[in-house]
Write a structure and sequence with these properties.
Elements (H helix, E strand, L loop, with lengths): L2 E5 L2 H8 L3 E3 L4 E3 L2 E6 L9 H6 L3 H16 L10 H10 L6 E5 L2 H8 L13 E7 H5 L4 H9 L7 H5 L5 H8 L5 E3 L6 H5 L2 E5 L7 H8 L4 E5 L4 H10 L4 H4 L3 H11 L6
Length: 268
């Protein structure tokens, strides 16, 4: 069962940022958590494919990927080699996919939780940061998937590792059903992926409700609800820590977004 915890002070928020566990073997502090920030606490954990195609997601997904690959071949001729690579490149460019974005950085998640198209609404509603445990999630995987991680001496899947056990959506969905999902680290195809410390969860077609899955199968998952009165305070703190649009979206677009917000004048 996942927890829901309300955060109303900056000190409570900083506890998330500093949450690492000492690893005796490595003699270092490490974390197995990844995070997802949402601008409204009412938003569900839902993939772009689910939002876009709704009840027809299963029927339309293969057509979306097939046509994306057909037209994107000029950008990357190797796309036909892996359906997972097709998804990740497509997700990065706004294609509806079954991937759900996460970040290894809680600061990046806080950035997305305190992002608004209309900044006058920043203090009008609560936001949320989700936390899940990679190790806990991967313990739910079929044995074959856990074995390949062990053989590769890896704690997280890559495209190459996942292709060894599931190179098609059909195989993956049959293996996962509605009771497991893979966490994968994408290839560094763009500076945004690198700067955002991006990870993805690959949601199987049988998993219609991600929050229900977390509630029924995990103990370490947490839904942090950040009170609306705290959002501007966090936003200003992140700016000083150099976590902003200019860094998260490197390039002129991100620079312009950052400057627009930096010079935003609040309504009286």
């Amino acid at each position: 069962m996942y927890q829901t915890i309300e955060l109303s002070t900056l000190e409570q928020v900083m506890e998330i940022v500093c949450e690492q566990t000492y690893n005796a073997n490595e003699k270092r502090h490490r974390s197995s958590f990844i995070y997802r920030g949402l601008a409204k606490s009412s938003y569900d954990l839902q993939t772009s494919l689910q939002r876009n195609c709704k009840h027809l997601s299963g029927k339309l997904e293969s057509s979306i990927l097939r046509n994306f690959t057909k037209y994107a071949m000029t950008e990357d001729p190797t796309l036909t080699h892996s359906v997972w690579k097709q998804m990740m490149l497509g997700q990065h460019h706004g294609l509806p996919t079954r991937l759900l974005d996460w970040s290894y950085s809680p600061l990046t998640a806080l950035h997305f939780a305190t992002t608004e198209n209309n900044l006058d609404k920043m203090d009008k509603h609560d936001c949320v940061v989700w936390k899940i445990d990679i190790e806990e999630i991967h313990k739910l995987l079929p044995q074959e998937y856990r074995d390949v991680l062990h053989e590769e001496n890896a704690r997280i899947f890559t495209v190459e590792i996942l292709d060894k056990v599931a190179d098609s959506l059909e195989d993956y969905d049959a293996d996962m059903k509605n009771s497991a999902m893979v966490i994968i680290e994408p290839p560094s195809i763009d500076p945004r992926i690198i700067n955002q410390y991006s990870y993805f969860s690959i949601i199987p077609s049988g998993m219609q409700n991600i929050e229900e899955f977390l509630n029924e199968n995990t103990e370490h998952s947490v839904r942090y609800v950040i009170k609306k009165e705290l959002r501007w305070r966090i936003r200003d703190m992140l700016d000083q820590m150099n976590i902003n649009e200019r860094i998260v979206y490197p390039g002129l677009d991100g620079l312009s977004e950052w400057l627009a917000r930096h010079y935003f004048v609040k309504s009286e």
